[in-house]
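no rush on this but wanted to send it before i forget. what follows is a protein written twice so to speak, once as letters and once as structure tokens for the fold. mainly i need to know what kind of three dimensional shape the backbone takes. thanks a lot i owe you, the record is right below.
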Amino acid sequence: MTADDLASEATADAVQPNPSEYLPAGDVLGSLKLLPLPEGTSPSGVLAFVKLDEPDGSVGWSVRVTEGMNDEENLGLLAGYVEHLKQVAAASWDDSDPT
């Protein structure tokens, strides 16, 4: 799935879903596991990029957002996480290699 496909799906998902269509995250994500949240906190929203094993054997991607998350929160979260990933990648570069 390309970035354009992912954007198209996100746009399609942005159509106001019927609240009765929402399922508990564990029901949607099956047996996938995550690290626990910090002690004393409780979840209030999720923005998830879900890697899919497609029926034809290919890999796909889907975006899921819980009720109550707005576009501004999601954009801020993504921008912050992209910066974090850039810093992690830059820190992993070996400066001793002259090429």
